[in-house]
Amino acid sequence: MVRAAVLPAVNAPLTVADIELPEPAAGQVRVRLAAAGVCHSDLSLSNGTLRQPAPAVLGHEGAGTVVSVGEGVTHVAPGDRVVLNWAPACGACHFCGLGEPWLCANAGTAAAAPYATLAADGSALYPGLGTAAFAEETVVAAGAVLPLPDGVPLTDAALLGCAVLTGYGAVHHSAAVRPGESVAVYGVGGVGLAVLQSARIAGADRIVAVDVAPGKEELALAAGATDFLAAGDDTARQVRKLTGGHGADVAIECVGRADTIRTAWSSTRRGGRTTVVGIGGQDQQVTFTALELFYFGRTLSGCVYGNCDPAQDLPVLAEHVRAGRLDLSAMVTDRIGLDGIPDAFAAMTAGRGGRALVVF
Questions:
Q1: Whole-number Å distance between alpha carbons of 277 and 191
Q2: pLDDT for 122-134, tens place per residue?
Q3: How far is CA 347 from CA 150, 228, 333, 340, 351, in A?
Q4: What is the largest CA-CA distance in the chain?
């Protein structure tokens, strides 16, 4: 038996309980978790913003050590250190064929099938985003584990599985930030902190961090922001003022709210680029006039998992960590146990802190 944080039903409180994990079948891997990050997507799964069968064990940003492997698994072996990949590409669908594995049509199939049982009554449990990292151990598809390169602390490496891949990819793949450009980052949570560090790594000149919580200024500046703004009615104007009156070359929105997306878009220069990383609900409607779309010539784009290919990007990120350009531990503001996840959810809802990390 292993301990896990179980979501009994959508909008129900998480409870820590014993679960029974099967041995890995063919094409599966069993992993002992070292740590798991508490991501806003987990909160969205728990409250129904994102669809997830329940009861479930959430958690998708994790790293650990391989315990055992099923038949046919050759890229990892027991004892290997690995990072979980919550969106493993199938390599065969239309989008994979286009070279866009982050849009894989089959990446989410594992989340729809039970993977374990509750020890108390034998009821089936579903794995959140196919990974179920809020547990001491998990069993996942072989494609959902990536070997962790040497030189990266295993506990902090959990952040690479979602926040850092997403933030890095938003900067380097989606927005394609160039040296000397100005960047406005909306939302200084786990992903936002990764975006700030990645914008610095990309050579951005002015990096403006925006958040509703003034207390996040120190976190933002430490991550690479040159300026910090407390969000308000005149945020777009303030960003334009800080960027020569024209607006930022790039805005990256990490919140997923209609008003924030609109503000991010309005804070860019003519011809500027806005990348939306935040996941909002269906009720969040963003509007533009046809005339302003023509006049400003701005680009607005969505971003899924940083538009990354994790197998290719993980070694690049590991090199940034080894070289001291990317500081994973600086993103963590709370190290907690499984029973601390509800408080971490509450902190995210209130806009407090950076990344909370469950340490096993």
A1: 9
A2: 999 999 999 999 9
A3: 33, 20, 11, 11, 6
A4: 63
